[in-house]
Amino acid sequence: MSDGTIVAEETAATGEVPEEAIASSANAAAATSAVSGNSVDAGGNQVEPGTADSAGPAGGGFEGGAGSEGKAPASKAGRNLPAALAVGFGLGLSLIAILLWAPKVLVGVIAVAVAVATWEVTKRLREADVLVPRIPLLVGGQAVVWLAWPLGPQGVLGAFGATALTLMVWRLFDHGLTATPRNYLRDTAISVFVLTWVPLLAAFAVLMLSQDDGNLRVLTFMILVVCSDVGGYVAGVLFGKHPMVPHISPKKSWEGFAGSLVFCVIGGLLTVTLLLQANSMIGVLLGAGLVLVATSGDLIESQIKRELGIKDMGTLLPGHGGIMDRLDSMLPSAFVAWLVLTALL
């Protein structure tokens, strides 16, 4: 009796197709695709090359490729460019208006952004079974940001230390006094990392804002981060051929990095000279430094998302992802901008 007759009889008797038949069909389809050049999914269905379901560069991996049917087409950088530009311009104009006419309001804006970004990161971590204590991270993160304005670096350091200690104790007893903690060292270390990555680095923007001409200093730092992003995007799309770190972020190229450097150094020279009325060489140093840390910040988040198996931290900002996806390069840049401008101005 042939295999096809056996399968037909089993199907008629049970109403289900045996798994062996499904596997056989999938194998046959895979063999056919090897000749035709089409990809095959797990169910044996053919997938046209270059679609969102295909593996390899055309699909984009976690860095984002072409979307599925019904979604706006992505740019070469893997984003919905019209939505990204609209959101970027809207946020940028709003922040400029706040800095020029109501700079103290920015403290509240930073605090809200920190809270949302912390929520996004902790949500993704908990989905990966990393049990970071969310409540002390949210509350302590707000303390780190808000105490930066009246108390300066001492307030930031005190709030950070108190929150870190709270995280250690909280994670030790979060399953009760009689339970044995599981993955305590890993979860606690990652919790302190998140506290450093988001609230602590964001607090340096508040520290910068509280200085003389603080609103202009923050505006300078924000303009330079935008210069880095725009320069990297333009040069990467037009000339990008040599990946920087393909195993972390395949779309980042050395040509894009060079574009970021040129844009950021020119932007630093102009903004420090015109806005802060300071030596232009400080702007050159600041621009070069911000390119390095902004790029590093982007790569850090890319590696974290790669390890978690996600494309974005959130979905709040169309074309950008979540709040944390927009802050990844700004957070370390805030620290370096505060350090350079505080030391040299």
Mean pLDDT: 82
- The helix fraction, in percent, is 55-70%
Given the structure, what is the number of helices? Answer: 13
Distance between the termini: 89 Å
Kindly estimate the percentage of residues that lie in beta strands according to DSSP. under 5%
**General shape:** globular
The strand count comes to: 2
How big is the Rg? 25 Å
The major beta sheet can be summarized as: 2 strands, antiparallel
- The strands making up the biggest β-sheet line up spatially as 1-2
Q: Structural class, from secondary structure content?
A: mainly alpha
Order of helices and strands: HHEEHHHHHHHHHHH
Low-pLDDT stretches: 1-72
Brief overview:
The protein has helices spanning about 5-15, 20-35, 80-100, 105-125, 135-145, 150, 155-175, 185-210, 215-240, 255-275, 280-310, 325, 330-345, and strands spanning about 40, 45. The chain is mainly alpha-helical and about 350 residues long.
Write out key terms for the chains shown.
345 residues; mainly alpha; two-stranded antiparallel ribbon; 13 helices; globular; disordered N terminus
Chain-wise SSE layout:
Layout: H1 3-14, H2 19-36, E1 39-40, E2 46-47, H3 81-101, H4 105-127, H5 134-146, H6 148-151, H7 153-173, H8 184-209, H9 214-239, H10 254-274, H11 280-308, H12 323-327, H13 330-344
Antiparallel strand pairs: 1-2
Helix pairs in contact: 4-5, 4-8, 5-7, 5-8, 7-8, 8-9, 8-13, 9-10, 9-11, 9-13, 10-11, 11-13
